[in-house]
Every structure is written in structure tokens, then in C-alpha cells.
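Lecture notes, unit on binding sites. The following record was shown on slide 14. It pairs a sequence with NDP.
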Amino acid sequence: MARSLSLLGATGSIGKSTLDLIRHNRADWRVEALTANCSAAELASLAREFEAKIAVVGDEACLPELREALAGTSIEAAGGETALCEAAARPVDVTVAAIVGCAGLAPTMAAVQAGGTVALANKEALVSAGGILKQAVRKAGATLLPTDSEHNAIFQCLQGGEISEVRRILLTASGGPFRTFTAEALQSVTREQALKHPNWSMGAKSTIDSATLMNKGLEYIEAHHLFPVGLENIEIVVHPQSIVHSMVEYRDRSVLAQLGPSDMRVPIASCLAYPERMKTPLEPLDLTKVGTLTFEAPDEARFPATRICREAIEQGGGAPAILNAANEVAVAAFLDDSIQFLHITRLVEETLDQVEAPTPRSLEDVLAIDAEARAKAQELLTIPQ
Ligand code: NDP
């Protein structure tokens, strides 16, 4: 029998990779809800192709365009944040949570509260609201499957092992496009250079996060929430080839690694088919062509983002939500050409210094901290560096 799927963030990079897998296994899937923010024409075209029951745009102003593009079909159209959450709460076999940023938190929470299986790509939701999301997972009896390639690799390496037997988690990082740049050279890197990731094809925000290594810092926090081995037992290792997607060391010093092509369809397929395996249209990994796999320690003097993230999660309380919000503001400003590359992490650190927040107890608390941190980061943007 076909399995049902809802996809939050259908028009993004993860969304398209997910739909490509569905396209190649069409008879196995029935699509319930597809969502976007405002890419109404693209969303409507996907909803038609995959015969979705409902298409939702987060930005209500884009609903008329969506309605028009879906005219003559029986596909429901809806718009706005409440509609996103209602669509996310529809009962399905798998919901892929792939909205970018904290904007994905409320819909992801709605999917979790519905008690189904949620394939989580939206790492910012876990960074900002880790404790609350995990509590909601427990309460609803939901299943959270890590879709981020590193966390999916760790998840796979843990199959057949016990988390209590884990000595260390080794979170691999490509190092981004500026891995070999000097501190001086980093001062003048451009938006175009930062948007060219050497190995992965991702949305703009994640690509910039990978260039600053903020992505790895967010993933460190994400790993802490998903795999409770203690922060001191999660280590970041730079691995420029992005073939080993992460590793788990057990207490006997056995190290298990998951390898694969640098293509998000691999971890997404692992989530969609879990606990089974599905075919993907990918070429097999040819290690003789890759040749060499190398590993090096991260340099936090040139790339302070991982240190900032580690300090934020150690501090706890509202710090991770502040960090995430400030980073979203800083990345948007960099993409806008309003600030320079090195200003991104500086702005995040300054915002963390200036905003204080107690431990959030609810989704509303997290969203309030997020809003306050965004406002402070925007204010700091206006101060010349
Ligand atoms: P993209 O920017 O490519 O896509 C984002 C998606 O979210 C789009 O469908 C976009 O719609 C939608 N969206 C954006 N803002 C809102 C909003 N305010 N309300 C509702 N929907 C919104 O992102 P990616 O696919 O690269 O990343 C998605 C998530 O997955 C991120 O959290 C990222 O960290 C994570 N991730 C991504 C990886 C990758 O390889 N891309 C790898 C691992 C994790 P619209 O098109 O209308 O703007």
C-alpha cells in the first residue's frame, strides 16, 4: 500500500531532493500536503505533478497566486502560518520538515504533536527549541528521524549499538569554501564566493552557514539534542571530501562511519524508507575515484562559529535561540550585501552578549526570545563596524 507524505518546504533544496526520490518511486507514495513560503507557481506545479491534497503558502499575500495556479484542480489551497500548522498536523506516515530557519519551528511542532514520523531537516528548530521539541516528541509518541546528513550518519552508525556504549561522536565538516583562506583573506570574501560550496548543493542560508562553519556549530547543538552522549563527547573533525558523513566511536574504540556520495537524497531516502531501505537514482560511490580521505582539526581562530555555538549550548537557557535568530539576521544581511563575511559571527556574538533570556518553557517562549534577538541583531546592524 502507498505510504502518505507531507513535505514542509517543498520548493527548497531538501524539498526538491525529497520529491525527486518520490518521483522515482511514484507508486509507493501518496502526497498529502506540500508547502512553501511564497513560491506559489512552483508549489502549484509540484502539487499538480504529485497530486497533493493541499498546497499551502506561509505568506498569505501569495495565496491568490496559488489559488489561480491551482484553478480547475481539486487541490485545496491555503495560506498563512495557521494554515501551515494545520497542514503539518494532518495524519500521514512521514512528514519531512524542511522549512529553513526558525520559521519552521511551529509547523514542525504541529507535525510532532500529531504523533507521526517526522524526518527533520530543519535544524534551526532543534537549535532554538531542542528541549521543548523533544518533550513534545515524547508526549505525542512521535518518531524523529534525523535528515541532516551528519546526524543521519550517526543514527545509522547507532543501529545495533547502544547510546550508553558510545565513547565519542565525530561530527565531520567539509570546512566550506574558505577552509584554506588566511584570516586576512577572509576579510574580503564576497557573497558569490561564499555561495559556492565545494561539495554540497543547498539553499542560500545553509550555504553561507557552511562557509562560516556556523552550520557545523548548529549541528553540534543538534547532535547534542539527538544523541545524549554529553557535549564533551561530541567532536568536530574537518573532512574536506565530504564522503564520511560522521562517525561513532564505541567504548572498545571501534569507530563506525557512514560513507556515501555528497547528495542529500541519501539521508532523505534513509528517513523515508526507515527502517527499510529504498532505491535511489544515485551513482554508486567510487572510492577509487575519490582516492584520498583526509581529516584535520577545525581552526576556531579563523572560524569562531563552532566555539560560539558550543558556548551558547553550554550556557543553555535562551542562548541557543538567541544565537540562531541573530545568525538568521546576519546571514540575510550578508546575502543583502549589507555586511561583510566576518561580521556575521561578530553580530551573533554581540547579540548573545546583549540579550538575556531564561530557559524557554513553551513554543511561545522560544518565539518571543527569537523575536527579541532578531530585533537586537537588526539594531546592532545599524552600528558601523
Ligand atoms: P531552501 O532555502 O532551499 O528552502 C527553504 C524552503 O522553506 C522553501 O520551500 C521555502 O519556500 C520555505 N520557506 C522559507 N521561509 C519560509 C517561511 N517563513 N514560512 C514557510 N516556508 C518557508 O532551504 P534548504 O532546503 O537548503 O534547507 C531547508 C532546511 O534543511 C534548513 O533548515 C537547512 O538547515 C536544512 N538542511 C539543508 C540541507 C541541504 O542540503 N539543503 C542539508 C541539511 C539540512 P519558498 O520557496 O517559497 O521561499
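Take-home: Residues 9-15, 36-39, 58, 98-100, 103, 121-124, 148, 200, 202-203, 205-206, 264 surround NDP (CB under 6 Å).
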